[in-house]
Amino acid sequence: MAKPSVLIVEDDRSLADVLDYNLRQDGYETIVARDGQDGLTQARLKGPQLIVLDLMLPLVNGLEICRRLRSDPATAGTLILMLTAKAEETDQVAGFSVGADDYVTKPFSVKVLLERIRALLRRRKGTTNSGDTLVSQGILVDRERHRVTAGEELLDLTPSEFSLLESLIRHPGRVFSRAELIDSALGGDSLVLERTIDVHIRALRKKLDRYADLIETVRGVGYRFRDPASAVNTA
Q1: Dihedral of the CA atoms 171, 174, 178, 180 (nearest 10)?
Q2: DSSP secondary structure letter of residue 214
Q3: Per-residue model confidence as pLDDT tens digits over 217-228
């Protein structure tokens, strides 16, 4: 069985070496890039399953790298874990808003980082191997192929956006709190802010375009996917 591949984009050589060593010891294939431009190149050439991405990088910063990877169909589904000294909530929200799947601040425990990587890969494996399709009101979620279409348009969703939409559409009409969405869509071992769910939902609605209002906000509680039955009853 092929080992999962991880691209490390980090300009601090000593930290990159520590990450490289520990990831290899944990059974991963690794690729190391020392600046943002090389990181973009390696991501496109090597197609890693996950990228550990520093924010403060020479040539191209981490936020811009994330933005470019998410806009490219070839790399849009790659898992991205941001690694940075920027620990403010606004910095984390900025990272998630451009498509990061997780966010770890420096200094950090290598053991914790490895567990976060395992958690992201477990989420991906659990989503892509289930082999069923969900359809509602013009939205089709193909879990086997990890594809979403809205009408006739194929959407480029991040792994987190895909998981959120899948959880909501699977239970139309059910109201999910933000904490429940973190647990059911992102995994109970995902250490993210509840506010982060709002960022993901905004991004998801934007991509859904004319189908955006299918994701309804329940003020003071959370979100739900519109129940087709209620749409018929109110017509």
Answers
A1: -60
A2: G
A3: 999 889 999 987
CB 140 within 8 A of CB 133: yes
Q: How far apart are CA 81 and CA 64, in angstroms?
A: 14
Question: How far is residue 136 CA from its own chain's centroid?
Answer: 23
How does DSSP classify residue 183?
I
**Separation between Cα atoms, residue 143 and residue 126, nearest integer Å:** 9
DSSP 3-state of 50? strand
Total residues belonging to the chain? 235
Is 224:176 a contact under the CB 8 Å cutoff?
yes
pLDDT digits (tens, 9 = 90+) for 40-56: 999 988 889 999 999 88
Q: Can you count the helices (H) and strands (E) in the chain?
A: 9, 12
Tokens 């090597």 correspond to 46
Position 100: which residue type? A
